[in-house]
Amino acid sequence: MSNKTILHAKHIEAGAKMVDFYGWEMPINYGSQIEEHHAVRQNAGMFDVSHMTIVDVSGDQAQVYLRKLVNNDVAKLTVAGKALYTGMLNEEGGVIDDLIIYFFSETSYKLVVNSATREKDLAWMNKQAEGFKVTVTERPEFGMIAVQGPEAKAKVATLLTAEQTQAVEGMKPFFGVQTGDLFIATTGYTGENGYEIVVPQDQAADLWQQLLDAGVAPCGLGARDTLRLEAGMNLYGLDMDETVSPLAANMAWTISWEPEDRDFIGRSALEAQKAAGDQPKLVGLVFLEKGVLRSGLKVITPSGDGIITSGTFSPTLGHSIAMARVPRSVQIGDTIQVEMRKKLVDVEVIKPSFVRNGKKVF
Amino acid sequence: MSNIPSELRYASTHEWVRNDGDGVVTVGITEHAQELLGDMVFVELPDIDDEIGSGDDVAVAESVKAASDIYAPISGTVVEVNENLEDSPELVNADAYGDGWLFKVKVADESEIEALLDAEAYAASIAD
């Protein structure tokens, strides 16, 4: 049994190669994933992300509930439309999922969580909602299109009404606004400027077609993965999961330790891990020779072994890059080794961020 | 259904062989193989003068998806390699039977060419 997004027919029409993605039939590419990657870095590309799960959280205690549910602190959100990236942890401090929370008011928030984790996320959110005056509502009646790249905003602008144009005018990164039938957010998963647009299902195919006509290239999951990895963004299930602490997944910055009396789920486990100082860490790896670092390959360091969590060929840089979980004593600038196709190769350790706004950043 | 030229011979491991005459053949990977692999990012080729035996892993096609061994479809001596693939591995995707060729072999025993699959047999082997 496989789910199809509202844009499925548009993908077939465009000649997409479809694959199963955690129960969803999704485009992996429309011919060449490398050309799609370059379209986003150099011009504008779009992704069907309608498979992602949108959840509205509302009610008198929506803020109180979310301050317990996630490790970042939604009380930091005070301007309507502002968004926050966070993990949602279990009691052991493992990452159940990573998500974006949009703030409208202290009684109204919109969450976007991963599709692969939809069922467990909803079950967990509903379980934790017990005792709170809060309503957790999935919103499957929307499609979602991410339009990304240096020309993305200009191309989207050609399709907006005067009211919508005004609504997004000067919107800073990591904001969202409901305007007309669209929710338009300056978020994304590529390291480029652009929008993520939530659209009612019956208008999704038209919007997709208008974007195509405006010269936005359709891009599949293949390019989405190489773009997010170049941008140093985690992919749930590869770079972290329920057995991994945010401290070991380059997500320490999402943990709001203050105020000390905010008892979010997983806090005591994280405090113990932090005190022990023994969590591994997620770093970036650069490999300049021929060959591609791949997920699951063993990493060898003087202080013990690690593992590549995500690896790929970077189309922007022309060589392979990876994220790897390694012992904490490994330092940026170190040369360590990866076991690759029966031989050991040297790789350089960098911060896990490779490309932003089309440019190399290390 | 991908393109399978009738004038070529094939190995079940998705290499094609073109008889160029004078005991020399050109070797590449099939359209079907490049479609399965996706965008090529590196191609590692054998060295000129390498003695290769049918079935040996002699080259590697590394795509965005995976690194795949390429097997010698025939025994002999490598006499030429496609140096353009060093800078343009995407030629294998764009023109698998033409500019995307991999290497040329001076064959040891020409009867090995006839023993390879013809287009029909290769098509049958990938029909599934």
Give an account of the 3D structure:
- The complex is a heterodimer of chains A (362) and B (128).
- Chain A folds into 2 domains: 1-231, Gyrase A, domain 2 (2-Layer Sandwich); 246-360, Aminomethyltransferase beta-barrel domains (Elongation Factor Tu (Ef-tu), domain 3), CATH 2.40.30.110.
- In chain A, 23% of the residues lie in helices and 33% in strands.
- Chain A has 9 helices and 21 strands.
- In chain A, a hairpin with a 2-residue loop joins β18 (335-340) and β19 (343-350).
- Chain B has a single domain (9-110), classed as Beta Barrel (OB fold (Dihydrolipoamide Acetyltransferase, E2P)), CATH 2.40.50.
- Chain B is 22% helix and 35% strand.
- Chain B contains 5 helices and 9 strands, in the order βββαβββββααβαα.
- In chain B, a hairpin with a 3-residue loop joins β6 (57-63) and β7 (67-71).
- The longest helix of chain B has 8 residues, at 119-126.
- The interface between A and B is medium-sized, with 13 and 12 residues.
Please specify the SSE layout and strand pairing.
The complex is a heterodimer of chains A (about 350) and B (about 130).
Chain A: H1 8-13, E1 17-21, E2 24-29, H2 33-42, E3 45-48, E4 53-58, H3 62-69, E5 83-89, E6 95-105, E7 108-113, H4 118-129, E8 135-138, E9 142-148, H5 152-157, H6 162-168, E10 176-179, E11 182-185, E12 194-200, H7 201-213, E13 217-218, H8 221-230, H9 267-276, E14 281-287, E15 298-301, E16 304-314, E17 319-326, E18 335-340, E19 343-350, E20 355-356, E21 359-360
Parallel strand pairs in A: 3-13
Antiparallel strand pairs in A: 1-2, 3-9, 4-7, 4-8, 5-6, 6-7, 9-12, 10-11, 11-12, 14-17, 14-19, 15-16, 15-18, 16-17, 18-19, 20-21
Chain B: E1 9-10, E2 15-21, E3 24-29, H1 31-37, E4 40-44, E5 51-52, E6 57-63, E7 67-71, E8 76-81, H2 84-87, H3 91-94, E9 103-107, H4 111-115, H5 119-126
Antiparallel strand pairs in B: 1-2, 2-3, 3-9, 4-6, 5-8, 6-7, 8-9
Query: What would the average pLDDT of chain B be, to the nearest integer?
Result: 95
* Unreliable segments of 5+ consecutive residues of chain A: none
Mean of residue pLDDT values of chain A: 97
CATH level-four homologous superfamily name of chain B = RNA polymerase II/Efflux pump adaptor protein, barrel-sandwich hybrid domain
Annotation, overall tally of beta strands of chain B: 9
Instruction: Return residue spans of chain B where pLDDT drops below 50 for at least 5 consecutive residues.
Output: none
Determine the N-to-C terminus distance of chain B.
Answer: 11 Å
Q: In percent terms, what proportion of residues of chain A is strand?
A: 25-35%
Q: How many helices of chain B?
A: 5
The count of strands of chain A amounts to 21
- The number of domains of chain B is 1
* Backbone shape of chain A: globular
Molecular shape of chain B: globular
